[in-house]
Amino acid sequence: MRVYWALCPGLDASTYRKLFAHFGSVRALSEASPDDWLDALRMRPETARKMAAWQEAAPRRAGHVEAELAGAGIECLVQGDASYPKCLLDLFDPPVVLFARGNLDLLAKDDGVAIVGTRRSSSYGTYATKWIASTLARSGIVVYSGMAMGIDACAHQSVLDSGGCAIAVLGCGIDVCYPLSNRPLYRRLSEHGLLLSEYAPRSLAAKHRFPERNRLIAALSRATVVVQAGEKSGALRTAESALELGRDVWVVPGPITSKSFRGSHQLLVDGAIPLVDPIALLGHYGNPVTSAKGSRELSPPQLIPRHLQDLARFLTEEGPLRAGEIALLTATAPGNVHAQLLEMELASLVRRLPDGRYQMDIHV
Q: Cα–Cα distance between 311 and 305 in angstroms, integer?
């Protein structure tokens, strides 16, 4: 019955949570009248009418909804069941029902870390995200994020590329991909990771749902890493939720001149833990990192494609240079140098200066 009500058209997840908390059980909620619902909390009369119509039109479907969802590849995690993440009960308003698609075994791990940040990430923010996410992934840590553009998507991609465990918490229905540009990522997560949502299938993304999603990301994780956040970034909401729950918040410091890091820096002023190396984060929780070859350390250069590492080191050591100068100094065909520089520029590894010289945009 809890899933049955979660699918009611017009009954938003937040209203359902409040009704469930007020009546104490789904049975009591179902036996109440529309007037009782309206007296219980401030809700629109239209919502009560839709609930009554849903209850009247489809009472026999209550026992079959989970089977129908399972046929569509959607599993239900109901509050009170053994499969429901216990850490969500730390919230004052935990979801009554969670919808899931993918590998549910990932929820059994209790060492998850959230990586969040702005949708408009800088090359520095993107690089830092790749370094942190891949390091956590190779150490077996589950990484949570919100599948938004920018830092979120980069974190998911980096974890999957490293063969790690990625879980995305959505601000829309489990069968809705938002933004549409993340469709390939959505498919990868459903096949090799896990998607979670407290919203009924077919629910579209809405502005008020993202802060609600962010509280779940914070509650599911033992620590939250904020890579890059401006003054009004949604990542700050995730950090606030984590702090309210007594979870650790780590923050990647950025350039003090950058507006896109002002939110991050305020978190540091307020007492967040500076994150200057993901190895330190792992060590803090007693989880030493190991790579496939048994190395205890993963350094940033490993994120640069192997065929570009020599050029990256050369540019780092010699400073900004023009393509012709690089070709002359390295005895490399100019065509090859131009091709590699273009590839590095597209990957946000180098930046072309106004005078035509190329400069590394990250440290190696």
A: 11
Q: For residues 364 and 316, is the Cβ–Cβ distance under 8 A?
A: yes
**Lookup: tokens for 137:** 């992934």
* Summary mean pLDDT of the chain: 89
Q: How far apart are CA 141 and CA 150, in angstroms?
A: 21
Residues contacting 74, CB < 8 A, separation 6+ = 99, 100, 101, 174, 175, 201
Reference 111, options 239, 329, 288; nearest CA is 288
Distance of alpha carbon 322 from the chain centroid: 38
Looking at the predicted structure, is the pLDDT value of residue 295 above 70? no
DSSP state letter for 205: P
Q: Summarize pLDDT for 169-183 with one digit per residue, the tens.
A: 999 999 999 999 999
For residue range 80-107, list pLDDT tens digits in order: 888 999 999 999 999 999 999 999 999 9
pTM of the model: 0.80
CB 138 within 8 A of CB 35: no
User: Judging by beta carbons within 10 Å of its beta carbon (0-12, 13-18, 19+), is residue 343 exposed, middle or buried?
Assistant: middle
